[in-house]
Amino acid sequence: MSSDLQQTRADAQDEKSGPCAVIKSFDQIGSQWRLVVLHDLQGAEKRFNELKRSTDASSRTLSRVLDDLEDLGFVDRRMEEDAPVATYYSLTDKGRSLCPVFDEIEDWAGDWLDE
């Protein structure tokens, strides 16, 4: 972690007796793979292998990330027991509440980042 980022986090923690809401939010959603999966699930419910193909994550990474997101309340898991067994993932209300945030980030990126 860069010293500037460490200092920013330290400053944020000094202002209040804990991290600010932005830092707390990024602690939950800020990993690369969590963001990729959350963004990918915006459109519709997907099966594990669909997410694996669309995100290019390894099975192990995707499984870990989906478990984390489910534990944090961003993703629901639904199992169909019919043969073949299928596991579906979708955003919860908490996860869907991030959709406008992703839209704003995409708008910002379009204005400020080289494509």
What does this entry look like structurally?
It comes from Natronoarchaeum philippinense. GO terms for molecular function: DNA binding. InterPro entries: ArsR-like_HTH, HTH_HxlR, WH-like_DNA-bd_sf, WH_DNA-bd_sf. Pfam families: HxlR (PF01638). There is one protein chain. The chain has 115 residues and is an alpha+beta fold. It is built from 7 helices and 3 strands; from the N terminus they run αααβααββαα. The chain has a 3-stranded antiparallel sheet with strand order 1-3-2. The protein starts with a helix and ends with a helix.
Please name the defining characteristics of this protein.
about 120 residues; alpha+beta; Arc Repressor Mutant, subunit A; 2 domains; 3-stranded antiparallel β-sheet; 7 helices; about 10% strand
CATH level-four homologous superfamily name of the largest domain: Winged helix-like DNA-binding domain superfamily/Winged helix DNA-binding domain
**Most strands sheet:** 3 strands, antiparallel
**Rg over CA atoms:** 17 Å
Strand content: 5-15%
Name the CATH class of the largest domain.
Mainly Alpha
Mean pLDDT: 87
**Which fold does the CATH topology of the largest domain refer to?**
Arc Repressor Mutant, subunit A
Strands, total number: 3
Give, in order, the helices and strands: HHHEHHEEHH
- Output the strand order for the largest sheet: 1-3-2
**Derived structural class:** alpha+beta
Under the CATH scheme, the architecture of the largest domain is Orthogonal Bundle
